[in-house]
Write a structure and sequence with these properties.
This protein has 12 helices and 25 strands. With about 475 residues, the chain is an alpha+beta fold. The protein folds into 4 domains: about 30 residues, no CATH class; about 230 residues, Thrombin, subunit H, CATH 2.40.10; about 90 residues, Pdz3 Domain (Roll); about 100 residues, PDZ domain (Pdz3 Domain). The relative contact order is 0.07.
Length: about 475
């Protein structure tokens, strides 16, 4: 009856039939919904844990493994070259003889202990060419440290703490491939030299390959505040494991704008393992090169979306060649990781262990298939044979070497075939005045192909009045003539 009265008021006097129909449907809906649940009783927190969300236990566990890294470099400079001029000294003698002054250049950064024996990982740009390195622990103890090895291509360096008498706390490396955007992370370091500082945030992005900081461009992006001095510090997960080494920020003012970049732990693990074993960074070599599938290329190849790498060249005898990779193949995945572009492919291969294998998911003739690649270190074949050239010829003043896969890896360039590459050029040399540059590959001299240092040495030793030279500079063939 109450329902019918309310219905009459709402519809302003509907017919009895309409009123009964509405009430019937309303009661049916209430019954279908089931009994109304009682409101949950309000509970009063009875412990600190129930009212506090804190990262304190994680920080307490991880922070002792994060250190401050101080470097010192002594630079010598003369007061003025005028004091060494013979004409000046003829009148004033040696009383104004130039005595080199020393200027001390210092820098600071952060590092992470990754072995209890005192092995510390930091950024290569933190230590640079330092003469002295001091590591300060979170308990304020100071130790001298020596460089075990550096890898400028990944901007990582491995240090060993000296005169250590106990085992230090170390951070466990996590599998950075398991990260997901949105995961909570903490950044620990020494920003601006104020002392150890902890900031929190999330993973903003993964596999940032457009950030031109290092040769291997696949960075973790985070909005945890990272500032100058944080370089080399730890990026840790909510379970206290190391997932990255903080290395750079995006900033127009020098301060944090909420865009920081870290080197993934998988790359860190590869560099640390190989430097401790071989004294240098050794990465797996694929032996193939190509280009990223862009939107235009995807349309021309009738692909559903722009992703993957189109293989253009495969080096004979390389792991890729032995595994059956061919020009024209599209690399879609490495093991379980999807490949978006060329930089990501290079990163994924570089983080795999030498001596292991990789399963490449490829597309060939519009069909998906998989091939197995056995990974190896880039070989030193042919031998480099570094040679300094002299005499009256275009390459006088250059140091040249046979280009092989290992040297190409060190120089951060693709290896296609054997050749002769210019490593260094002396100042004010004939080669320098002609505009030759380190990194130029000598293609031919006087129409003779140059495949080895011995070929070049034989030609420049033969007397001639004219030189016709062809160089490969960053993929472009440059030609010039001298004499004649």
């Amino acid at each position: 009856m109450h329902c019918m009265n309310i219905t009459s008021r709402i519809f302003q006097g509907p017919t009895p039939i309409m009123t009964r129909l509405f009430c019937t449907l309303f009661v049916a809906h209430i019954l279908a919904a089931g009994p109304v649940l009682a409101a949950a009783p309000e509970l009063v927190p009875n412990s600190r844990q129930q009212v506090t969300l804190t990262f304190a236990p994680i920080v307490k566990k991880a922070s002792p493994a994060v250190v401050n890294v101080y470097t010192r470099r002594v630079l010598k400079q003369q007061v003025s070259p005028l004091f060494n001029d013979p004409f000046f000294r003829q009148f004033f003698g040696d009383q104004f003889a130039a005595v080199p002054r020393e200027r001390v250049e210092s820098s600071l950064g952060s590092g992470v202990i990754v072995r209890g024996s005192g092995v510390v990982i930091t950024n290569n740009h933190v230590i640079g060419e330092a003469d002295e390195i001091t590591v300060i622990l979170s308990d304020r103890r100071e130790f001298e440290a020596k460089v075990v090895g550096k890898d400028p291509r990944s901007d990582l360096a491995v240090l060993q703490i000296q005169n250590l008498n106990d085992t230090l706390p170390a951070l466990e490396l996590s599998d950075s491939d398991d990260l997901e955007v949105g995961d909570l992370v903490l950044a620990i370091g020494n920003p601006f030299g104020v002392g150890q500082t902890v900031t929190s945030g999330i993973i903003s992005a993964l596999a940032r390959t457009t950030v031109g900081i290092t040769d291997f461009r696949s960075f973790i992006q985070t909005d945890a505040a990272v500032n100058p001095g944080n370089s080399g510090g730890a990026l840790i997960t909510s379970d206290g494991r190391l997932v990255g080494i903080n290395t750079a920020i995006y900033s127009q003012s020098g301060g944090s704008n909420g865009i920081g970049f870290a080197i993934p732990a998988n790359m860190v693990s590869t560099v640390v393992t190989s430097i401790l074993k071989d004294g240098k960074a050794v990465r797996a070599w694929l032996g193939a090169s190509g280009k990223t599938i862009t939107a235009d290329l995807a349309r021309s190849l009738s692909l559903p979306r722009p992703a993957g790498v189109l293989v253009e060249r495969v080096t004979p005898g390389s792991p890729a060649a032995r595994g059956g990779l061919q020009p024209g193949d599209i690399v879609r995945a490495v093991n379980t990781r999807e490949v978006q572009d060329l930089e990501e492919l290079r990163y994924l291969i570089a983080t795999l262990p030498v001596g292991g294998s990789a399963r490449l998911g490829i597309q060939r003739d519009n069909k998906e298939q998989a091939i197995q690649i056995s990974l190896q270190a880039p070989p030193e074949a042919p031998a480099r044979q570094p040679t300094v050239l002299a005499g009256q010829q275009p390459f006088s003043g250059t140091e040249v070497a046979n280009l092989n896969p290992a040297l190409a890896e060190e120089l951060g360039r693709e290896y296609d075939q054997p050749g002769v590459i210019i490593l260094q050029i002396a100042g004010n040399s004939i080669a320098g005045r002609l505009g030759l540059r380190p990194g130029d590959v000598i293609v031919s001299v006087n129409a003779a192909p140059i495949r080895a240092v011995s070929d070049l040495q034989r030609i420049v030793d033969a007397p001639t009045r004219a030189w016709d030279v062809a160089l490969n500079r960053n993929g472009q063939i440059l030609k010039f003539q001298v004499g004649g």
